[in-house]
Amino acid sequence: MGFPKEGDTIQIHSYKHNGYIHRVWDETTILKGTQNCIIGANDRTIVTESDGRTWITREPAICYFHAQHWFNIIGMIREDGVYYYCNISSPFAWDDEAVKYIDYDLDVKVFPDMTYNLLDEDEYEYHKKLMNYPEVIDLILKNNVETLLHWIHQRKGPFSPEFIDEWYERYLTYIR
């Protein structure tokens, strides 16, 4: 099983801990695909929720998935700057169909000035009990929240000033 190649169009599938599908992004263009990291981009792609409802993303986004980190990062390019939506999640898996991960409810929203809000702590606590998250998962997730916040403070990886610009420029070469 290979990894998606630059220029390939793939789907992104988000699941919950119980194995049920949570959300599907219909089309994402691969900009980098290795066993450790997948970077993709999309713009105005259809998103299907678990209940069948659909919506369309409003702006271009660069998506960052890593095989070692329990989070993924979406940089949304808006007129007033880059906003980030970070999902605390399992590391990604690739199965020749889609990039897949388990969404663990906790999210971090980062604003262009690099201030941020931790979101959905109540949803996390509810699902932790409902789906019986193992204690080891709880510990891993909390440690990865700290790692993610460190990346934000240090402007590391996708939070570095040039990251989104460089990958967006590459994306534009595929859609021209």
TrEMBL record:
The active site is at R23. The keyword Cell membrane does not apply. Keywords: Hydrolase, Magnesium, Metal-binding. This is Nucleoside triphosphate/diphosphate phosphatase. Signal peptide: none annotated. Residues 18-156 form the DUF402 domain. It comes from the Bacteria. It catalyses: a ribonucleoside 5'-triphosphate + H2O = a ribonucleoside 5'-diphosphate + phosphate + H(+); a ribonucleoside 5'-diphosphate + H2O = a ribonucleoside 5'-phosphate + phosphate + H(+). It comes from Metabacillus herbersteinensis. SUPFAM superfamilies: FomD-like. Mg(2+) 1 binds at N87, D103, D107. Its EC number is 3.6.1.15, 3.6.1.6. Has nucleoside phosphatase activity towards nucleoside triphosphates and nucleoside diphosphates. Belongs to the Ntdp family. Mg(2+) 2 binds at D105, D107, D120, E123. Its cofactor is Mg(2+).
